[in-house]
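Run log // design_07
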């Protein structure tokens, strides 16, 4: 094995008698390098957007969320919840009621998600970091109820950040069939005021649809007594999330689901994974096409080195040794291209992380100014492994070609 590899390395470094062979070999290396560069860059961009979305959710979503397995409301008085609340690693325990409702401001109406929260939600969410306006975070007092709208929802309702007029919300009465002759009789209605702030998560599902209100307002509006729709948890810093989730799951039993931040937005992250996988497949096909250039350079190299093959044949070299020389030659070309592309990709990704020289656009409507990127060691290994597999697929037919070439050279010698 050492002899074919040694000769293959000499052929890589040696100057060819025909310049076209150098050109084709160079094109082969560049093709593999560009495909490897594109793979590293694209995967890093998807990683960057994935990490960006995770950071945007952290100011609104809990570390862990307890919901009914069937997705409906459940009693807040069950002993399992008291046991979870007493766990030593639970820092904040917040109960919520989240339902759909119709909101009206003056003559404008929108269907929204009304999220009723208790007093602990303020300490759980870090909501103060995403508030906009001159007012304060407040959901109720002795005089009135208050609600905090998402920024885009406030714009759709034309209410502004600090509206003076109250908002009206409507929800269907539980267990009552809508009376088409008098629809308003089938709905419960309440009103709330704005505390002079709105929130901005920079995610349309929240900014365009959510309203934060007190849990007591939602209980009155939707006819709940002790029922809630979720319990949101923040853990003590440094606690292992997976172990905590597993312990809470054992306490709550099979009728409840314990969701981390990924699972709370499973659809979004599934889309990221699917897009990343599809992009990887398409770029791999491009890499496969680029690898076929190696076959052309190897065939021309075999023609040029026919005298060397005759010499090797004369000193007793086997057909396998001659074939392995050209196979190793192809692998070395692929490896040189892959390493060049990966190194270029890593450098560009690191520079983008540091300086952000590739902007997203000039409209100013993006959360970040430049493309977010994140380099993963596993992605580097995956790209190198993919290049080697594609090279094996394209180069392996050279084995039979080299064998035929060896037999022709041996026949000519005889």
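design_07 sequence
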């Amino acid at each position: 094995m050492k002899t074919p590899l040694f000769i293959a390395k000499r052929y890589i470094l040696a100057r060819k008698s025909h310049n076209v062979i150098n050109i084709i070999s160079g094109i082969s290396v560049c093709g593999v390098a560009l495909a490897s560069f594109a793979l590293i860059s694209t995967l890093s961009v998807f990683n960057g957007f994935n990490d960006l979305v995770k950071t945007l959710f952290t100011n609104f979503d809990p570390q862990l969320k307890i919901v009914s397995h069937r997705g409906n409301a459940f009693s807040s008085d069950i002993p399992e919840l008291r046991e979870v609340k007493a766990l030593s690693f639970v820092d904040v325990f917040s109960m919520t009621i989240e339902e759909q409702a119709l909101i009206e401001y003056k003559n404008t109406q929108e269907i929204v998600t009304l999220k009723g929260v208790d007093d602990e939600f303020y300490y759980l969410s870090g909501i103060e970091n995403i508030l906009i306006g001159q007012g304060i975070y407040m959901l109720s007092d002795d005089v009135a109820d208050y609600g905090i709208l998402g920024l885009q929802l406030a714009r759709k309702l034309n209410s502004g950040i600090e509206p003076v007029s109250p908002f009206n919300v409507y929800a269907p009465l539980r267990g009552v069939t809508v009376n088409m002759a008098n629809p308003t009789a089938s709905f419960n209605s309440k009103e709330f005021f704005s505390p002079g702030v709105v929130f901005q998560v920079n995610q349309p599902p929240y900014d365009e649809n959510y309203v934060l209100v007190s849990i007591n307002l939602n209980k009155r509006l939707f006819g709940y007594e002790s029922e809630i729709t979720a319990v949101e948890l923040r853990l003590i810093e440094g606690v292992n999330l997976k172990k905590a989730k597993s312990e809470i799951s054992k306490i709550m039993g099979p009728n409840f689901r314990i969701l981390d931040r990924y699972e709370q937005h499973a659809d979004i992250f599934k889309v990221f994974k699917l897009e990343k996988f599809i992009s990887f497949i398409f770029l791999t096909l491009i890499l496969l096409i680029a690898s076929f250039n190696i076959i052309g350079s190897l065939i021309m190299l075999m023609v040029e080195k026919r005298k060397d093959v005759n010499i090797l044949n004369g000193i007793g070299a086997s057909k396998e040794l001659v074939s392995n020389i050209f196979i190793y030659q192809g692998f070395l070309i692929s490896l040189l291209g892959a390493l060049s592309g990966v190194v270029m990709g890593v450098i560009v990704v690191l520079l983008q992380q540091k300086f952000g020289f590739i902007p997203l656009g000039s409209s100013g409507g993006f959360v970040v100014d430049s493309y977010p990127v994140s380099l993963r060691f596993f992605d580097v290994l995956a790209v190198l492994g993919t290049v080697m597999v594609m090279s094996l697929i394209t180069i392996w037919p050279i084995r039979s070609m080299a064998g035929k070439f060896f037999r022709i050279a041996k026949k000519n010698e005889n």
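The first strand starts at residue 64 and ends at 68.
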